[in-house]
Input
Amino acid sequence: MTAGGGSRPLLEVDSVVKTFPAPGGGRTRAVDGVSLSIERATTVGLVGESGSGKSTLSRCVLGLQRPDSGTIRFDGVDIGTLPARELRRLRSRIQVVFQDPHGSLNRRQTVRDIIAAPMLAHRAGDRAKRAARVRELLDLVQLPQRMGERRPRELSGGQAQRVAIARALALRPEFVVLDEAVSALDVSVRAQILNLLKELQHELGLTYLFISHDLGVVRYMAHQVAVMYHGELVEHATREELFSAPRHEYTRILLEAVPVTDPARQRDRIRRLSSATTEETSP
Output
């Protein structure tokens, strides 16, 4: 299922399986036959409880792990068939922003060095061009230039995540995996970062895989929502379809767990849950 017609999706995941050794022997399917596509310049929200397979799928998409079977195509290219050099080149087009903004930054480096690190690793430009790109990126993520001389310990959580976003954009990627990228932030700061991500998508034409356990955040960010449960993709629909008429029982359970502030809606939810419980326990 895709967000629109026309050109080929930027990312296509087809029947991907990834297993790991199980404690008692055998293997556990962390990702079990997942198929998913993401159109260019759109956001797919990937939701599910801890252990549902979201992060494993994202690592396969990033090329950090190879699936046992199935294919992952980026811009039509099967990344599983690429030699190491080609895969390294492809990774400049696919970047990631992690959950812990401070933990993902090198504490010994200045902000300028952190943002420039991907360019240095990929030998992109000379020193002057890299310095100019860092200045451009600081402006892009709405940080003052003086922040460039600071170190991670001197930054707030929101500032640190802006630096992580700037670093992810340093090589001008087309696709960004946002792995719980706002879950560690305060609510007010979270809203600022979400708005920044939306602005960047609009300005740069970015494509996002937005991984989160927070359906409220996903509803704000995503054009489409994919729901994982025990390694399987149990539902994939547009945002409007999923939140208005979820088809899978697990999706309905996730939606029921979203906090609501409206007392009338909360009372209605309690009545519906009570009614469902009564029906399940009736002989």
Summary: The chain has a mean pLDDT of 89. The longest strand covers residues 27-38. The first helix runs from residue 54 to 61.
